[in-house]
TrEMBL record:
Transmembrane segments: none annotated. Residues 89-123 form a coiled coil. It comes from Eolophus roseicapilla. Its main location: cytoplasm. GO terms for cellular component: centriole; cytoplasm; deuterosome. It is found in: Cytoplasm. This is DEUP1 protein.
Length: 166
């Protein structure tokens, strides 16, 4: 997109330079026209020369009109190019702003997710410790239960033996 802008700017500069040359030629032709008019006033004195100058003036006027028409067309094209460049730059700016906003939103969302992950990790760590403690307690209780079961069996067997003896 930047290359397109650069190309359009170069085109604008080229057309501006052409526009300045045309304006310079117009000024030169206006100067010549003024001289011709001065010579025309001296028509009686320099009649043959005046006729030649009038012909030159006519030729110059024709060229001047053609240049003016060309200048108008080029000015219109230049304005169209400027408008297009302006619209592209505006579009580019708004796209950049949209992307900045989107990046900012995504960064904020990422930050929130990182906080959530850290919180979950802390809770998971706490739950893991609690689970280990509960497992230890259950292991102890199981061992105690097994000890009690074996004592019960021993006592039950002693009771049975004692009953048989009595």
């Amino acid at each position: 997109m930047e290359a397109g802008f650069s190309e359009m700017r170069n085109e604008l500069q080229s057309r501006d330079a052409l526009w300045r040359r045309i304006q310079l030629e117009c000024q030169q032709m206006h100067t010549e026209l003024q001289k011709i008019r001065e010579y025309k006033d001296m028509k009686e004195v320099h009649q043959p020369y005046c006729v030649q100058l009038i012909e030159q003036l006519g030729n110059k006027n024709t060229k001047l009109l053609l240049l003016a028409q060309s200048q108008e067309r080029q000015q219109e094209e230049l304005n169209e190019i400027r408008n297009h460049v302006y619209q592209e730059e505006q579009s580019h700016r708004s796209e950049k702003e949209r992307m900045k906003t989107e990046i900012s939103d995504l960064t904020e969302e990422l930050h929130q997710k990182e906080i959530a992950i850290a919180t979950i990790m802390e809770k998971a760590s706490l739950l893991e410790r609690q689970l280990k403690m509960e497992l230890e307690i259950k292991d102890k209780l199981l061992a105690k239960q097994q000890l009690l079961d074996s004592r019960y069996k021993v006592m039950s067997s002693e009771n049975t033996h004692l009953k048989d003896m009595v």
